[in-house]
Each structure stands twice: as C-alpha cells, then as structure tokens.
Amino acid sequence: MSELAIRGAKVVTPQGVREADVLIREGKIVRVGRVHRPGKVLSARGLVLLPGAIDAHVHLALPVAGTRSADDFESGTLAAAAGGVTTIVDFTVGRAEKSLPAAIEERLEEAKKAAVDFSLHAEMIGWTPERKAELLQAAELGVRSFKFYMTYGDSGRRTSLPVLGAAMERIARLGGVAMIHAEAEELVDPGRGPYPEARPALAEEVAIAELAVLALRTGCLTYVAHISSMQGLSTFLAAKERGAPLMGETCPHYLILDESVYTRPDGYLYSVTPPLRGPQDREALWTALFRRELQAVSTDHCPFTRAQKEPGQNDPTRLPSGLPGVETLLPLLYSEGVVKGRLSLSDLVWYLAEGPARAFGLWPKKGGIQEGADADLVFLDPQARWEIHADALHMATDFSPYEGFPVVGKVTSVLSRGRWLVRDGELLAQPGWGEFVPWQGGKG
Predict the structure, then answer these.
(1) Among 12, 100, 401, 426, which residue has the fewest nearby CB atoms (within 10 Å)?
(2) Cβ neighbours of 280 (radius 10 Å)
(3) CA geometry: angle 287, 259, 284, nearest 5 deg
(4) Phi and psi dihedrals of 183, rounded to 5?
(5) Distance between CA atoms of 337 and 332, rounded to whole angstroms?
(6) CA 278 – CA 220 distance, rounded (Å)
(7) Tens of pLDDT, residues 42-99
(8) What is d(CA 236, CA 156) in angstroms, rounded to the nearest whole number?
(9) Which residues of 12-45 are buried (b: 16+ CB within 10 A; e: fewer)?
(10) Which pLDDT score, from 0 to 100, does residue 36 have?
C-alpha cells in the first residue's frame, strides 16, 4: 500500500503512551499525531500500537549436539511474524578455518528465505589477533556485533581471556559491540549436561566479573547475553556502577520458569544453557527489568522437537540445549510483565524494540514509532485471553515450555515496512520479504 493512516490507537514509546494517529507512506512512518485528509484510514480504537518487536538473539538452522535447531530462516521468521517480531538478529555459524566475511556471506545467502527483516552477529570461533583485518571487513558488510563464548571449550568455541581482551580493544576502535556468553569454563562440567548442578550460577557470576574488567579496561561496549541468575545480575549491576560499558539481556524462560521443571519426567525437554534457576533468581530479574537496568529481553530461540531431545534423556552429553520462544516473546512479556504490574507499556517497548535497536545498530530505522522509521507496527488486543499450545503455534517444534500457559493480550495484526504480515489474526507473511538491515551509520 502507498499510504495508510492508523487512527485512534494507544501509541507506545519508551517515554509514554498517548492516543495518536500514525501516517504511513511508502513503507515509512511519516507522521505521528493528528493526520488531516488521509487516504486509506484504519481504525485501531481499543488496541495498543507497538513498534515491531526485535528479537536480538535467535539461532535458526544452528548445528547443535549432532542435530540442527528445528526452525530455519523460513519457518522461524514466519513464526516471528505471527508473534509480532518484525526483526530478528541471528548469528553466523563460525568455524576456526572460516573467515568472518565468508561466514557472513554464507549466512546472508541462507537468510534469503526470511519473512521478516534481519541482522547478524558474527560468531568469533577460532579468531586470533592476527586476523584483526576481518573485523573491519565484517563492518564493511554491515556487521559490527561480534559473539564470543567464555565456555564450550570442548567444542572449540571458547575464547580465552587474552584473545577476548585483544578482540575487544579492536571492536571498541571500530565502534561495534562484543556480545558474550558468560560462563566460566573452569566452573562448568559439560559431562553432566545443561543442568544447574553442572552449570552453577557461580560460573555466570565469575565470568561476568572477568568480562566487566575487560570492558572497563578496553572501553568496549559489551552486551552480556541471557543473564539467568541473581548472582550474575548483581555482578553485572555492580560493574555498571563502576563505569563498565555493559548492556544486559535476559530471556522469558528465566522470567517465567524455574529449575523445578527438571524434576518432571519430561524435564530433559527444558534443557537450555545457561540452565533455569530458582524462584529468587526469577524475581531478581523482574526487579531489574522494572528498574530498567537491562537493555533487552530476547528469546535465545533455539527450538528442537521432542524426538531431537529424546536421545539425551538418559545421556546428558547428547542433549541439545535450547528452547523455542520467538513467537511467544511479545505476548508473554506483556501478559506476565505489563498485566501483572511488573512492567509498564513503555518498559515493554524499551526491552523489545528501542533497547535492542540501539544495542545493535538498528536505530533509528527500527525500534520506534517515529517519523522516518520503518513502518514496523504491532496491533495488540490488550483484553484478549488465550492459552499457549505448541500445535497452534508456527514454530517447527512439537514442544513449548509454556504449554497450557494462560495469556492476556494477543497480537491481532502486524505491519513490516507498511506491508501486512498479519491481518486480523491471519498470517499473510511470505518467505523472502525480509531484508538484511546493516548496522546503521558509521562508528558507534
């Protein structure tokens, strides 16, 4: 459509909520306010209008534990669209023998099936300081976010502290961001699987403490992925108080579930790294969100079917870690956060839109309802009540960790660059619509 005026919605930004019209022209937002003499008009009275959600941490078609995550760029992004996620940030599949530019080009080819817009983090697997030129080459391809693991030494993914520090120095000069899986290698026991006793909160706490020193010394903007524990969170916040340039993320499964699920007969299905923690950790994370102390809530979407996880039921070394979540991100955070008074609507928009957009070079093209931004918009019915069931979702898995979970608030319609992905509950998104969004602007 060339022009559309959305009239009478509750428009949400991180600064507040107001009733306003939104005028869209040629896929862009051109006015927020009173629109006079519009062409096509759509009434949104009674609905909440949100910027399209950004899931900044997803793993589509990822090789894990001898299998591959169940969603590819087609099924995963169709599910994203159904849940109001209009932009995802996935990862290259790094290998020591593969250059960063080659890994980016390979992943861009795989992503051509995407139904929503996407960006990339570059996995830093086997990188050494002698390969420093690859960082600039990655930036020239539109990628300035670089992912490191402080664990997984058994699979060759771990980056040592000296190499991590050297990389962070160069990323800081580039104006990029280091994204870190923070678990101390020496404090985990991979042979016991992705469970709390094998991957204790202490491992997260120590890794974040080490990382914070490197961030403070190098000045590198550093994004701590999937913070799961009260200890890790406390260390993260203390480091920020000392001036470390840190941003933090948590995930819905750490906010809603806890380690008690592992005692169930099907507890192995909930395998995820870091593992689920206790109720006290969950409440600490909600408190941090309420205080707006974190940057984003992302899903770490890495789904597997029951059949893919069953070989690990009695052998934890064969258990792939990961949970589905991209389709349920927005409704769960609204229902468990806003409806229950743990978050405001403005907080919701910070964590699902502007926060991740600013973290990963997507702002101001993505992440806000403002003039000049892409017309990525989500219409939410704040009163609708429904239950989550895996067989009614679009993710390529027969398991949801939230099976039977009651939800208040439902996505009714979704626009991506002015085009309908969902209209009155009907999924209209098409594979191939999604475009790569390179890092916006130059350094920083």
Answers:
(1) 426
(2) 11
(3) 10
(4) -140, 130
(5) 8
(6) 32
(7) 999 999 999 999 999 999 999 987 899 999 999 999 999 999 999 999 999 999 999 9
(8) 26
(9) bbbeeeeebbbbbbeeebebbeebeebeeebebe
(10) 82
For 29, the token pair is: 């937002």
Closest residue by Cα to residue 363 from 7, 119, 199: 119
Residues 225 and 57: their CA atoms lie apart, in Å, by: 8
First to last CA, the chain: 34
Band (18; pLDDT cuts 50, 70, 90): very high
pLDDT, averaged across the chain: 96
- DSSP tally for the chain: helices H, then strands E: 12, 19
Q: Say how far apart CA 261 and CA 254 lie, in whole Å.
A: 12
Secondary structure of residue 70 in the 3-state scheme: coil
For the record, the structure tokens of 98 come out as 């593969």
Paired tokens of 67: 């299998």
β-pair partners for 353: none
118 SS3 class: strand
**Residue matched to tokens 């949100």:** 50
Nearest Cα residue to 152 out of 273, 236, 315, 63: 273
Say if residue 444's pLDDT is above 70. Answer: no
